[in-house]
Design brief:
Layout lengths: L1 E2 L2 E2 L6 H25 L5 H12 L3 H12 L6 H12 L10 E4 L2 E4 L5 H6 L3 H6 L1
Antiparallel strand pairs: 1-2, 3-4
Length: about 130
């Protein structure tokens, strides 16, 4: 079911998620373009592929771009780590939203220490031993 060009996912706040996600894709794509510009040893083909990833940046494409760069011998370890670190810290969902639809896929935020959050303390550690 569509409403005004948006896919109705059934998740609360999906319109907010869609707007946030579009802005985040643009932001990450721009960062990747700058990153590619910083890399002096890339061949024309390698730079072209990274820029192609940047142009079609999405939740899924970020992982593909990272895997591609990690396999390049012309990118140093520090620069590979900088890309990996940056991409792993991207918050694809707006603050306060833990589940939504991105590119037609249901995505959930990884919550830190879910059992601690559930019980509110570290009691569960002693119970599991």
């Amino acid at each position: 079911m569509k409403k005004r060009g948006m896919i109705m996912s059934g998740f609360p706040r999906q319109n907010e998620i869609d707007v946030y996600y579009e802005n985040k894709k643009k932001e990450v794509g721009e960062w990747l373009i700058e990153y590619a510009g910083d890399q002096k040893r890339l061949t024309q083909e390698q730079r072209r592929r990274i820029l192609a990833y940047a142009e079609r940046m999405s939740f899924s494409t970020a992982g593909e771009a990272n895997a591609y760069v990690q396999g390049l011998k012309t990118v140093g370890k520090r620069e590979k780590e900088r890309l990996r670190s940056h991409l792993s810290q991207i918050d694809w969902l707006p603050e306060g939203v833990n589940t939504g639809t991105l590119d037609g896929k249901i995505v959930c935020r990884v919550l830190p220490r879910p059992l601690e959050r559930l019980f509110g303390d570290n009691d569960w550690k002693s119970k599991k031993e």
